[in-house]
Fold:
Amino acid sequence: MADLDLLNQSLARNVKRWRNERGFTLDALAARAGVSRGMLIQIEQARTNPSIGTVVKIGDALGISITTLLDYEQGPRVRIVPADQAVRLWHTDAGSFNRLLAGTEAPGPLEMWDWRLMPGDHSPSDPHPAGTVELVHVTAGELTLTVDGEKYPVPAGSSVSFEANSPHTYGNEGRAPVEMIMCVSVPGVRP
Structure:
C-alpha cells in the first residue's frame, strides 16, 4: 500500500475514533474545526487527501496532535521513529518541506517538526487555539517569522518562541535555504 493511502486510511480511522471519543457530531466537529461537514465525511471515508491546514484544524479542534491523527501503529511507551518514517506533510516544487518527526499527547498535544524553506518560499498558518505555543530553532539561513503582521528575523543559531493564536508565516526572504526544528504545544480540548 502506498504511503499516502496508508496515511489517508489512518487519518480516516483516527478522526472518526477521536470524534466519537470526544462526543462530537460531524456538525459539531466541522464547526469547531472550521471545515465543511462534507470534507469531514470524505476524510472519515478516506476519499480525499486533505491539505496540511485542514489536518491541523481538525487536530486542534479534537485537541490531539497530527502525529496521533496519522498514527497507524499503537506504539509502546518508548517509540523510536526511524528517519524514513517521518511524515512529510507539506512541500513545494522549489524544495521546501516540513516533516513531522515525533509527537505525543501528554500532557497535551506536542509535536516536533523538521523544516526546510527555500529562498522565496513562505508557509502561512491560521491561528491555533489560545494557549498554543511554538518553539523554533534555526540551524541554517535566516527565518523571517511574521506574527500578526509583524516580521521578526531569526538568524541561524537563534531560537524563538511565540503564542501561535494569531496568524503567522514562516518565510525565507534570503538567498540560502532556511533549516529549522520546530515544536508545537497545543492545550488539551475539553468536550
